Amino acid sequence: MHSFAVDPGSTDISPVSFHPVLWICAAAVFAVIVLQSVIYLRAIRKAASSVDLTDGQVMGSVRRGGIAAIGPSLAVALVAVSLLPLFSTPAVLTRIGLVGSAAFDVAAAGLAAQSQGAQLGGPTYTQKVFAIGFAAMTLGGLVWMLTALILTPILAKGDKTLRKVNPAVMTVVPTAAILAAFMTLAFTETTKSGVHVLTLLVSAGVMGLCIAGAKYFKKPWLREWGLGIAIFVALAAAFLVTAK
Amino acid sequence: MSTKTATFDGLAQFDRTTSIWGPITLGLGFLVSLAAALFAAFGTGLGITGQEVWTAFGIVFATFGIIAVVEPISYYPILGRSAMYQAFMIGNIANKLLPSALIAQTDLGEKPGTRRAELIAGAAIIGAAFVHIITLIILVGFLGTWLLGLLPAGLIAVARLYILSAVFGAVTVQAVVSMKNARTTIIAAVVSAIVVYGVVRLAPVLTNYATAVSVVAVIIVAWFARKRTVASEAIDAPADAPSSIGH
User: Fold this and answer.
1) Residue-wise burial string across A211-228, b where 16 or more C-beta atoms lie within 10 A, e elsewhere
2) Of the candidates A22, A37, A165, which has its C-beta nearest B36's C-beta?
3) pLDDT digits (tens, 9 = 90+) for A21-55
4) Tens-digit pLDDT profile for residues A152-201
5) Quick one: closest CA in A to B24, which residue?
6) Is A157 helix (H, G, I), strand (E, B) or coil?
7) Nearest residue of chain A to residue B79 (CA atoms)
8) ipTM score
9) Which of B139, B162, B177 is nearest residue A77 as measured by Cβ atoms?
10) Which secondary-structure segment (H or E) carries B160?
11) How far is B72 from chain A (nearest CA, A)?
């Protein structure tokens, strides 16, 4: 398969991005989720009768949840496939597929690349830039796990101070932060080249059409698939204008 | 009397199990991810310094840290304690786990917030996680990786070079639509444009921190420009959790 020639300056990132240790970590994350599911399912089945749930209803809920997840899972898989050339399989499986999300991880890796004076995917995208980008997106994702680990017991105790945070703070702050982050990242793309501008506009336009279509034709799946469709159409547009 | 004790015991047992194993499994996921990150940076012999990783992480944290604190707080009332440990490991909360849980609850005539609903949600999330893992392994792990090997190098190069633009265009539109907040959208657009086309050009040292600067500036401006009446704040508050970006 890959020869593990590590070279910080090489733009062939596969020796690092397909490193066996990263494959093992990806498999381990899957294993932990399976372990958690097994423990939780046993606990739920034991407790079910105390809240008037039959075992059949519990297993029916597992099935129902699984069926409901088919659409979103396929939509996520489409987005994940589009990121394979950039991050390779192990990183995509764990970060974009599971713990993280395409939006956050691509943003984090892009910011990390910028701190190296490099751009993701371009001639400056070396093994070193990939490794720092992967580390930054993973460490960033850990902050979510950590806040969930710390805040959940506090919230469970019914901590009034946390729940009584001014509701305006809880709406204004995340809305402002998310919009500011992605608009700045989007505007930064426009400073790179004309093709970047075109790709950005096509992607935004297609996403807009998908959301509008979902609303007016009552096809909610269009919204779910919007991101994946927008990415592929935008990349196709970029390919068409650059391939001469 | 005996049924009451049974009820208490059954749920108490469930609470005990999940309050021990929930954090343990989420903690395990944390450690595995941490190991992967540290290995990629320091174990591969690329000569990356701790300083470089901290700088990169610092920029990411400055940009998204606040959202990582707000999300668990806003999801807690919907998910309940036990499911928090599932959701923040499996991810895709807003687009996959919540719909799955809600559909399963509706099927059994239950509304979020009760203990019965909590168990149904937990079961539904397990089903969703199972389907998700299978889809990822087959479609991304095997099929995607195989497909990647077939594609011409030129196509892959284009995909790599323009993928950021392709992601951010759609994600920005998605964020604007799901936030439904014209005022903050306009503030964010104006401030971000000033930062990218003005501040960064005048002070290139700030390039790395452009996104973090925008985030802080937009939070401050949006805070002082928010609608102040109590009623409108209540209306502004989204009925469901904010769309997740991190998970």
Assistant:
1) beebeeeeeeebbbbbbb
2) A22
3) 999 999 999 999 999 999 999 999 999 999 999 99
4) 998 888 766 666 667 777 778 888 999 999 999 999 999 999 999 999 99
5) A36
6) coil
7) A152
8) 0.87
9) B139
10) helix B153-179
11) 6
